[in-house]
Amino acid sequence: MRRSILLLAGLALSVSLATAQTTPPTIPPPLPAAPADWLLRELEASPVLRQHHAGLQLTAVATGQSLLSWHAEQYFTPASTQKLLTLYAALRILPDSVPSLRYLVRGDTLLFRGTGDPTLLHGDVPSARAYQFLRQWPGPLVLCPTPYAEPAYGPGWTWDDYPYYFQPERGAFPIYGHTVRFYARQPGRAPLVLPRVFRPWVTPAPPGATSPDHIRRDLEANRFQWFASPKAWVDETPFRTSPELLLTLLRDTLHRPDVQPGRWRLRPGEQARVLHGLPVDSLYRRTIRVSDNFLAEQTLLLCSAQLGHDTLSAGRVIRYVRRQGWLRDLPDSTAWVDGSGLSRLNLTTPRNQVALLLKLHQLVPEPRLLSLLAAGGGQGTLRRVYRPTDRKAWLWGKTGTLSNNHTLCGYLRTTSGQLLAFSFMNNNHLAETTVVRREMERLLTLVHERL
């Protein structure tokens, strides 16, 4: 009987081993195949991309799998896609609301200084909190200087862009976005000038003089000329900043001629207070969606103020981010010199930009993150391109444009539901930007439809 039991047990073991040897092991389903073949052919055959420096990185957000790397390890000038790095730093450093002022109360006197907040009376993202706080203070107001370590313009900025709305001067206490607004409501008539303090410095151009611009400003002074036009127009021109002008503007707009300059020295045991303004997402949305250079630069200065340094410095924030190791896992090193991307000294790679997009996706809930970006066919710099299919947006991103450079970084949702991070960078092209943009749209639409 025992022999029979042993024989049966041996037979059962043999069957079990045979089954184990013939049954294949469980293998995880393969990741989706990279679209390198057809997409690479499209990129290489493109007559638009052939003559300039172009690169593309395409990565699945859920898995981190690289689907395509085409010149993605090479360096490019990122232009305004550099603002994504500024956004990342701000999300790691700033609180939920913008720190608008630092102030001290001594008796009935309010001493206050700037933090770099750009929203005070800004034409597009105005914050009333600091304005009302100062306007309604019942006692004397004393404006104290904020130590500031940066020049008005960033390293590598184009000097002859000084009169254009996209390159205002940076500063510790911005007001009116550091720009003058002109409204020519009746053709041929003098424009309305805001703020009104600048009206005495605005004159008509000599008879017969022409210009491609409505307004010209002297390089070193706040002297403006306006040019007659047969149509109504609106223009925005940066002004030269100075402590004296800031004091004049505050007295005028607050209707407080008693605002006086003073010194900021903390007494033993005294601690400055912070007045908070807009939710930070209001600042970020305007910065990223419409690619506002001034807001981006000031965001780095806000980060400097938040770090507790007495002197505002964008460079200090950049060094702080590096010391924290927050960029250590990027595949390549970066040249980072400003917050806006106006400088051509900034350098990065397409795969760096995608790695940054993946870090942003991990840091911020997806709905919030996508809401900060321009949306194809929706708002911002992408409102007229990448139009939704079935009324659903499928591309969100940040554009970047300098002369002969156009880049786009962001997220793309395919018809199969995958969310992809991409960076499409183009440098040194002589073709019109519109031509390059249309080719990028054609190729990214194919990615959307085929994956």
From TrEMBL:
MF terms (GO), sorted A to Z: serine-type carboxypeptidase activity
Signal peptide: none
InterPro entries per the UniProt record, alphabetical: Beta-lactam/transpept-like, Peptidase_S13
Identification of the protein by name: Uncharacterized protein
Record carries keyword Translocase: no
Any one of the GO BP annotations: proteolysis
Keyword Hydrolase in record: yes
Keywords associated with the record: Hydrolase
Matches recorded under PANTHER family: D-ALANYL-D-ALANINE CARBOXYPEPTIDASE, PENICILLIN-SENSITIVE CARBOXYPEPTIDASE A
Domain of life the protein comes from: Bacteria
Pfam family membership, one: Peptidase_S13
Source species: Hymenobacter busanensis
Family to which this protein belongs: Belongs to the peptidase S13 family.
